[in-house]
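If your schedule permits, I should be very grateful for your opinion on a structural question. I have a record of one protein: its chain in single-letter code and its fold written as discrete structure tokens. Kindly check, if you would, that the fold set down in the tokens agrees with what the sequence suggests. I remain grateful for any guidance, and I place the record below:

***
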Amino acid sequence: TGPSGCPSSINDGHDIQKSTDTVLADFDAVGEYDGIVVACFSVHPLVPKLQSLSGPNGAVTGIFEASVLAAISLLGPGQKWGIVTTGKFWEDHLSDGVKAYLGASSRDDNAKFAGVQSTGLNAGDFHHGVDPAVVREKLKKATKRLLETGEVHVIVMGCAGMAGLEAIIRESAKEERDEEFAYSTLHVIDGVRAGVMQIDHMIRNQRLRPGKP
């Protein structure tokens, strides 16, 4: 969904950098917006770069950052959260990214974070190009691996392309645990939805500051 020249699917560090360079070259009106959501589930350089361009009165977040905050807010005592994502590259990228975002070293353990499980698919595969039955099976297997780590009560869909696939994750949870857990206990976070909700919260807080119109 980026301008011409962006990779059709962001699958690794090279794609992240290419999308950053292409968007920044096309983006010269930051001040026209009350808020900006970077809808790529990654530790994306666009987030801090757009924050710098927006200045102290700007509101910028990525769906990765928003999802981390949403997941943590939903945890009860002793509960964990984790991420289901696309390719193998993202397992280390997102695991390290979570720790860095929370101010921890990549070597540190996090008692509340159950880690990242990948499907082996690319972002574009979720809605075209791959048999839906294959998508369903791979997403279910990744979900079950995450649930097997124990006490996972919040699952983040770690790709914007997963939007609309929450039902598959809940179906997997039903098979792995039971129906009550899948539909009454488990939280499934859509990163794009979390990003929109977070940016709304940020904009409202900006407007509460003295002198802010």
Observations:
- The two ends are 32 Å apart (CA to CA).
